[in-house]
Design a protein that fits this description.
This protein has 21 helices and 9 strands. The protein is mainly alpha-helical. Strands 1-2-3 form a 3-stranded antiparallel β-sheet, with no helix packed on it. A hairpin with a 2-residue loop joins strand 7 and strand 8. Helix 10 runs antiparallel to helix 21, helix 15 packs antiparallel against helix 16 and helix 16 runs antiparallel to helix 21. The longest helix is centred in the C-terminal third of the chain and has 31 residues.
Length: 495
């Protein structure tokens, strides 16, 4: 596919009948399985037996792809920083063309000549992954940090690291959750802090790493990447926050099997009709492409889509996911998270008009000037994922999926307040049904909340490789959005 959440997984809960010792608010009913939910603080959930690289994708599909593709193993030998075929690489190998661009750019950020020393690079990756409690990436880079000569004491937490690394906490937090708040003042504070200041090349290198690992955390959770090992498990159990959540859909236990999730909701005929309806909508939109809407209508459609994104994913995210000590030690201000760009009842922030500061005309040249050659590698990666296509949709062949890829990419940017004036946002509503929007917003904005049920609920007749492609698009759209805000702030600092 090419460029660029409703209620949570337990569809909704309704208050109890009010006969529970006078505390009607303490009992709720899951509208999916109808079980009564009690307000518990935490619950111990047995860890499922993890097999294969993904909890969402059948192991045989990934293994078959890898066994058929010698190119993947050559790429790992050349560019893998870990020196092995890890779970992320195995899942990405469903799209070998993209994988090459990904591994080359990641290798360059972590291992090749650059402004930052190697241990700093891995510690910044840890800080970025910790914003989304991504223990998979944290564990990976703790190992790499030590291998490259990092000081073990730093792994005790942020209070043990040099002040200049601590100073990255603010932009790490903003880029991960609300990049539109990043300003030139944040940049000035970092580059004008005396002995702890950052040079602009160092800062650009750090920003690229932060954006890369925030986005990669989205891919890890969105694709159900299994841990290489369970370092946060204790005696085979994990503590999960379950206030108002039903055990049928715990966000941190994606392997839970529940018949109500598989037998009652969707039939084959329903998913086939869903596929045909999507094909029909694409065909109709392609036929109408020559009918240009007025600028006023285009403005209205963007504002409508931006406002409607507020309704996607709401009340079921009130409770915090339990953060293990291994993760929380790397996080400052853990309560700071994504808030909708266009929040109701607040003064709107100005929309980021893409043509005023584009990756192609502005971001690329700035990042390449301050951190030599990374711009070319990132540009290749963005272009690769945006243009990648096999001209198929599920069982259909010879399909032009450009329109669908563009809708996915632009919807992510819309949620981050970025608008393309020449894009008709009416296409987003036509092409992305609600369950897919729920999935996109969760993976992009709160990836640690992603569940297998969300993954299974959209495009039910599509191949897993096509859903992985969706995750690649979401990851790159998110990374580009963060970079646009950061590089625009740096440009404003320079001018």
């Amino acid at each position: 596919m090419n460029r660029g959440s409703g209620a949570a997984s337990c569809p909704s809960s309704v208050p109890g009948d009010g006969h529970s010792s006078g505390h009607s608010e303490s009992r709720r009913v899951c509208s999916n399985c109808r079980k009564v939910l009690r307000q518990e603080k935490k619950i111990r959930v047995s860890l499922p037996l993890r097999r294969g690289p993904s909890a969402f994708i059948p192991e045989k599909e990934v293994i078959q792809a890898n066994s058929l593709n010698e190119r993947t193993h050559l790429l790992v030998e050349e560019y893998s920083t870990s020196g092995r075929l890890d779970n992320i690489t195995q899942v990405m190998s469903l799209h070998t063309q993209y994988l090459e661009s990904f591994l080359r750019s990641q290798f360059y950020m972590l291992r090749m000549d650059g402004p930052l020393p190697l241990p700093y690079r891995h510690y910044i990756a840890i800080m970025a992954a910790a914003r989304h409690q991504c223990s998979y990436l944290i564990n990976m880079h703790v190992d790499e940090f030590l291998k490259t000569g990092g000081i073990p004491e730093w792994l005790n937490g942020l209070e043990y690291v040099p002040q200049r690394l601590k100073n990255l906490n603010e932009i790490n937090k903003l880029l991960a959750h609300r990049p539109w708040l990043l300003s030139k003042e944040h940049i000035q504070k970092l580059v004008k802090t005396g002995e702890n200041n950052w040079s602009l090349p160092e800062l650009v290198h750090a920003v690229v790493l932060l954006a890369h690992y925030h986005a990669l955390a989205s891919f890890v959770f969105g694709s159900g990447i299994n841990p290489e090992r369970d370092l946060d498990a204790s005696n085979g159990y994990r503590l999960i926050s379950v206030n108002n959540f039903c055990v049928c859909d715990l966000a941190n236990d994606n392997n839970i099997q529940n018949a109500s999730l598989t037998s009652n909701n969707f039939g084959i005929s329903d998913s086939l009709s869903e596929l045909e309806a999507l094909m029909d909508r694409m065909k109709r939109l392609q036929e109408e492409e020559d009918e240009e809407a007025s600028q006023e209508e285009m403005d209205t459609r963007f504002e409508k889509e931006k406002t409607e994104s507020l309704l996607v994913v709401t009340e079921a995210f009130d409770d915090e996911i339990v953060s293990t000590a291994d993760v929380s030690r790397y996080v400052e201000d853990p309560g700071f998270g994504y808030k909708d760009f266009a929040r109701r009842g607040e003064e709107h922030l100005p929309t980021f008009r893409a043509q005023d500061y584009t990756w192609e005309n502005h971001g690329f040249s700035l990042v390449n000037r301050l951190y030599s050659d990374i711009g070319h590698l990132l540009d290749e990666k963005f272009r690769m994922v945006y243009s990648l296509t096999y001209n198929t949709m599920a069982t259909h062949e010879d399909v032009d999926t450009t329109m669908l890829r563009r809708a996915l990419f632009n919807y992510v940017h819309c949620m981050f307040g970025i608008r393309y004036d020449d894009y008709d946002y009416g296409e987003v509503n036509q092409l992305l049904e609600r369950s897919l929007k729920v999935y996109i917003k969760t993976v992009t904005c709160y990836p640690e909340r992603t569940t297998k049920r969300m993954y299974d609920s959209y495009w039910r007749q599509f191949k897993h490789s096509e859903k992985v492609h969706v995750n690649l698009l979401l990851m790159e759209a998110r990374m580009q959005a963060e970079l646009l805000y950061a590089l625009r702030a740096i440009t404003r600092h320079l001018t």
